[in-house]
Amino acid sequence: MMATRFLQRFKKSDRLNIDRYTNRVWEHNNGLTENYWPNYAVAGGVGAALGWIWLFLLGSHSNLMMKVSVHILTTYLAVISVLCFWCKQFFWGVAFATGAALQFLYVISVVDRLPFTMLVLQKAVKMVWSLPEVMRVAYAFMAVMLLWMGIWSFGAAGVVASSRGDLGRWWLLVVLSVSLFWTGAVLCNTVHVIVSGLVFLVLIHGGRNASPMPPNPLMKSLRYAVTTSFGSICYGSLFTAAIRTLRWKIRGFRSKIGNNECLFCCVDFLFQLVETLVRFFNKYAYVQIAVYGKGFNRAARDAWELFQSTGVEALVAYDCSGAVLLMGTVLGGLITGTCAGVWTWMTWSDRVIMVGSTAMLMGMVLVGLAMVVVESAVTSIYICYAEDPLLIQKWDPQFFNQMSEKLHRRLQHRSALAREILTQPA
């Protein structure tokens, strides 16, 4: 479909003479593929640049960049909402305003968790920065993704330039966006498996240069990820991102509801439903896949049962590192979409939302590939702590003490809540 859309309107309108079959439902007053493709090229370039800059600054300014992601995202969403209203795009204005409100409420609900979250992210960055081969993997996969986006953008530009009506163009763009999102998720989770396997090996053997380490562990993880485990990666990529995002939002709101019993019951029902889904689709499965070669569903169940049996699930639930990294990914996507959208507005103001929204997705995928290396280190740290806490103590004794203290407090907090619920009068 992408190739057809690209060729249909490249340099010559209706090159394949498709419009003759649909002259009643299509328009005939739009542009050429080559008119819109440079806008997508800019989006790819900006997204790749943001991802590479983030990786470059990972070691020295990562904590600052994560704080910026948390606090700037709400403002950026609000500004884009105002611009959409100014351009008379009321639907998108309401959508971005709603996103800004939800983001603000979420940050307020988890503000007490951010110090511990930043601590975990700092330690994950420390681990990643000590493994330069991990950075090379991220750069290589970003180059692969950029190459695929070069092909994908021809199809997207062809759809925007096509003579189909707005509704038809939007449906085709949705299909293309889903394909891009899934491809990006597969590549992100492939990097996740590679980095998780390498980090786990480093932690379990006591260091990168330890004698028990297998020779060339990076190539071993890479070969395993793109062969034996690739089916599990593709399958898990369909569901994990959406379920994790929904879980973060519900957890944040659930903790701030107060005494509204009706609302609490509704949110609690959704929470229990999502928790059941998380048992079968969670990011910690990729560590089990990388290390033990399990199938995705079995790996997800085993990881969750390991957390629950050791109590580490209470610590995982308290940590917001995944949400903070997602905020950085969304911010990168918004910046990319803004750059492409502003250029489009200067020439084709009626195509700003189409180009800007798909360009935003391109930026999110590229920046997400940079963020995933830190997230992989976080998941490996938690899996190692659940399997054998002494591995973390051997790696960083101070961090081990901080994690143990926080876990003890979280378990005490949960016990107190359980006692309070049991002692309430019926």
From TrEMBL:
Taxonomy, superkingdom: Eukaryota
Subcellular location, record wording: Cell membrane; Membrane
UniProt-recorded Gene Ontology molecular function terms: transmembrane transporter activity
Pfam family, one: Choline_transpo
Membrane topology note: Multi-pass membrane protein
GO CC terms in record: plasma membrane
Main location: membrane
InterPro entries on file: Choline_transptr-like
Membrane in keyword set: yes
Transmembrane segments: 40-58, 64-83, 90-111, 137-159, 171-204, 224-246, 323-346, 352-374
Alphabetical UniProt keywords: Membrane, Transmembrane, Transmembrane helix
UniProt KW Transmembrane helix keyword: yes
Family: Belongs to the CTL (choline transporter-like) family.
Functional note: Choline transporter.
Protein known as: Choline transporter-like protein
